[in-house]
Amino acid sequence: MSNLKIFCVTNKKISHLEGSSLLLASVGKEKFNKNYLKSNIQDNIFYKEKYYSELTFHYWYWKNLIQQEKAEWVGFCQRRRIWLKNSSSKEFINKQNIKNHILDFPDPSWSGYDSILCGEIKTSGAKKIKMIKRGWKNLIRNPFILLNKKKETIRFHFDMHHGYGNLIKAINLMHDKDKNDFLNYVNKNNSFNPHIMFITKKKIANQWFNDLFSWLDKCEKVFGFEDLNGYDTTRLYAYLAERYLSFWFKKYTTYKVHPWKFFEDF
Question: Would you state the CATH architecture of domain 4-120+193-262?
Answer without folding.
Answer: Alpha-Beta Complex (3.90)
